[in-house]
Amino acid sequence: TAKGLAKALSIIKTSPYGSGLAWASLPCTAGTPYWDHNIKHPNGPEKLREHQEKLGQLLEAWGVIAETAKQYGWAIAFEWPEPCSIWQSPWMKEFKEKHNLQSVILNGCM
Predict the structure, then answer these.
(1) Is the dihedral of CA 20, 27, 59, 91 positive or negative?
(2) 16, 33, 78, 99 — which has fewest CB within 10 A?
């Protein structure tokens, strides 16, 4: 929401320079491997579009937060499961390059 974005930006801007970590853990529903199966359901294509639109809004806000965090010396981290197809999207590849992010694979769901 606009209110949530404003709050995140306020926290970054009022914190001491370099004192924070902006961590994104956005829904990965639009990139789950289950879409290979779910897309075949009657409402599958519509549901996928809904998830993609919602994620697009979240990624847009996250881009603003990450850019602001970077300007204020904060570290940036982004979390999704390894098989999420969105890692391969042009947006994510550009974002990773722009912010010099490195991929790290963690198996934290054991």
Answers:
(1) positive
(2) 16
**Which DSSP string do the residues of the chain spell out, in sequence order?**
-HHHHHHHHHHHHHSPTT--EEEE----GGG-TTHHHHTTSTTHHHHHHHHHHHHHHHHHHHHHHHHHHHHTT-EEEE---TT-GGGGSHHHHHHHHHTT----------
Look at residue 70 and tell me whether its pLDDT is greater than 90.
Answer: yes
Residue 104 has pLDDT above 90, yes or no: no
Say which amino acid occupies 40. K
* Residue 29 near residue 51, CB atoms below 8 Å: yes
CA 41 to chain centre: 27
Rounded to whole angstroms, the Cα distance separating 39 from 31 reads 12
pLDDT at 51 over 60: yes
